[in-house]
Amino acid sequence: MEMYSSFRNRAKIVWTILVFNCIAFVMLILAGGSTDVEVLVSFGALSSNLISEGEYWRFITCIFLHANLMHLGVNAFSLFIFGPTAEVFFGRIKFLIIYLISGVGGSATSYVFIDPRSIGVGASGAVFGVLGSIAVYYYLNQHIYGKYGRGMMGGIAMIVLLNLGFGFTVQGVDNWAHIGGLLSGILAAFALQKHRSELGFGVFGLYFFRIIILALILIGLLLFAARDNPVNSLNKAQGLYEEKQYDASLKQLEKILDDNPNWGKAYLLKGKILSEYIDGYAGRGDLIQAVRLGDKDTRKEAVKLLSDVDN
Predict the structure, then answer these.
(1) 136 shares a domain with 257
(2) What is the DSSP secondary structure assignment for residue 111, as one 8-state letter?
(3) Within a domain: 256
(4) Do 6 and 148 belong to one domain?
(5) Does some domain include residue 215?
């Protein structure tokens, strides 16, 4: 117990992350509530539509946001328990790299596999990555820790399996983020060793390990490329609109909005088409939705169109 207390006293990065997460949560509350979708998105939640439009920074920002006090409390407590050990084992800079890579890996996996209508927040992917990195440390230092190290690896495996099992039985838990974060943390921990020759794989094994990493990266890119991209669908609807194929464009937009009901740009285009194709008031409801859900430029254009309709 005294050893782990010492670890926590030395874990400057862990404490910084915990404080940052708490500040971010308070800011969400002050901005209108941590359960408000618009507030979460404005602060950087994972949003498939916005990431598809190029807002890749959301892969990082979403790991510092939490949907409610329980969500924050569970992740903060887990990081408080396991983070100091990983930070002392790897050092501050490497721990921070592992934490961020795990968080981004979890976010990216979630982006590929979850319902594109969902938004994502939370540090659980990063926490799973921290757990994975600790297991890697004990694995690579079995000659030092022996039976104790193997016991710790077994304990970590049990924690991971129990949490994944819980995630598969409870609605609203993003297990893809957990799995992606765990794998990313494991790979990052292996990659950040001082001497790769000490991994215990031998020359052939080391080349095999690198091939596995490259294969995982390639699979991830293929999954990303294969995923339906709503931006391409919206561009197609825009092209049909410009060709004055209004019915075809509206049909395309209906499908887009069925899958992405919070996409302001899709509502803006639908409102424009209905205003031109039928009459101004036909598109008014969609333009209002564009103002409510869109980004700055979308809201500006929608407000202008609404002003024209009302006048």
Answers:
(1) no
(2) H
(3) yes
(4) yes
(5) no
